[in-house]
Write a structure and sequence with these properties.
ATP hydrolysis activity, GTP-bd
């Protein structure tokens, strides 16, 4: 079973910065609204010892 999640919020509030921190990606995170218009996809391993 897979798990999907999204980051939703107002412009210029740090969504790209959070995305970069969680996925170790290097997408643009600039200090102006609508810097990242296109969606980004990241894959993060989540161990499940069940």
């Amino acid at each position: 079973m897979g798990f999907k999640c999204g980051i939703v919020g107002l412009p210029n509030v740090g969504k790209s910065t959070l995305f970069n921190a969680l996925t170790k990606a290097t997408i643009a995170a600039e200090n102006y609204p609508f810097c990242t218009i296109d969606p980004n996809v990241g894959v993060v391993p989540l161990p499940d010892p069940r």
